[in-house]
Amino acid sequence: METRTKIHADLNGKSFDQKKYRSMIGSLMYLTGSQPDNMFSTCMCARYQANPKESHFQAVKRIFRYLKGTVNLGLWYPKDTGFQLVAYSDVDHAGCKLDRKSTSGSVQFLGDRLVSWSSKKQNCVSASTAEAEYVDAASCCSQVLWMKAQLTNYGFQFERIPIYCSVLLYPTIRFSIQKPST
Description:
Helix content is 35%, strand content 20%. By secondary structure, the protein is α+β, with helices and mostly antiparallel strands.
């Protein structure tokens, strides 16, 4: 997607075939499993499946053109890297022009391997960037805690799990999940 342009409802735009639009969005959602770099833009376009317009179709075509130019890119999982769980989160504060909700994004790595990612519109409207970041950090933290519990079942132990949250106006905020001291 263009970095400075936001997709909006485009109430006065020319309507587009809903069935074809949904089919295209479904194909893009399938591809996010192996190419997470298009997750944000695909989710943005998916919000307008109920009443797609020509402008939404143009945005979807742009995503397909991007994918056509990046067919040789994908996830790489090296075998001899560390096994530390690290998470990163970021938010687009009030990014939706319709309801002013923020979009959260997070990724989780085991060593150099990307193992989990998400891009989702928040359920609440945040009054500030900091509030939106904390909502996003809480969501990322719950994912990390779930992953930690699952990996513990396989015999892996983690003392500290850093969660990096970026804020536009401030340096990186760093959260860390630690084992409670006894």
